[in-house]
Design brief:
There is one protein chain. This protein is mainly beta. The protein has one domain (about 10-110, about 150-190): Beta Barrel (Lipocalin), CATH 2.40.128.20. It contains 2 helices and 11 strands. It has helices spanning about 35, 135-140; strands at about 20, 30, 40-45, 60-70, 70-80, 90-95, 95, 100-110, 155-165, 170-180, 185-190. The strands form 2 sheets. The chain has a 9-stranded antiparallel sheet, with no helix packed on it. Strands 2-7 form a two-stranded parallel sheet.
């Protein structure tokens, strides 16, 4: 059941997890090593098999997962639905049940995204004259400087990921549960081996 109070646009951008952890530092894992080993390796998001709910999904998302020293190590590469590349890398104490990896984090929204690069079309040509202003009383008044845009309010989003892998080790499924003051939503992301 999905209960949505207000849409949180592009929260999935943060889903690669810029971490401010809420999880304890003590690793907890009841999963047998044979099953745990199925998580290791490279994974690519299958957009068609995934359900992003009300949040736009990334255009591309890949994981390289390693489990060493009782820690979960993930290198993620993501391109958002707007074309912004967002690489991320993190390590967390391993937390898992007998059948699933569990990651719990608090994300800050909006994130500090890389600035979009300006194209050469955004620059005025050297030596080009600006168009002449119309000769009206309105035009004679000095233009007001635009007010700087207020930054959007920040929002803490609690994210809980429950990841399971198929018995043949070819499909990784993440159930993501986002909780915040703006509302709750969930997603299902499906990954396959490249």
């Amino acid at each position: 059941m999905r209960r949505i109070v207000r849409v949180i646009p592009a929260v999935v951008v943060l889903s690669t997890i810029s971490l401010a952890s809420t999880q304890q530092d003590e690793p907890r894992c009841a999963m047998p090593e044979k099953l745990l080993s199925l998580y290791r390796g490279n994974w690519e998001l299958d957009r068609a098999a995934s359900d992003f709910g009300i949040v736009p999904g990334p255009a591309m998302l890949t994981y390289a997962i390693d489990l060493a020293d009782v820690k979960l190590h993930i290198k993620a590469a993501q391109t958002t639905d707007t074309g912004v590349a967002m690489p991320d890398e993190f390590s967390k104490p391993l937390n898992c049940s007998a059948t699933a990896l569990i990651v719990e984090v608090t994300l800050r929204w909006p994130p500090d995204l890389p600035e979009a690069k300006k194209s050469s079309d955004d620059k005025p040509d050297d030596g080009a004259k600006p168009p002449e202003a119309p000769k009206s009383p309105e035009a004679a008044k000095p233009a007001e400087a635009p007010k700087p845009a207020e930054p959007p309010p920040t929002l803490d989003v609690k994210l809980r990921i429950i990841a399971t892998v198929s018995s043949d080790g070819k499909t990784l499924t993440e159930r993501r549960f986002y909780r915040s003051a703006a509302g709750d939503t969930d997603q299902t992301l499906v990954f396959h081996r490249p």
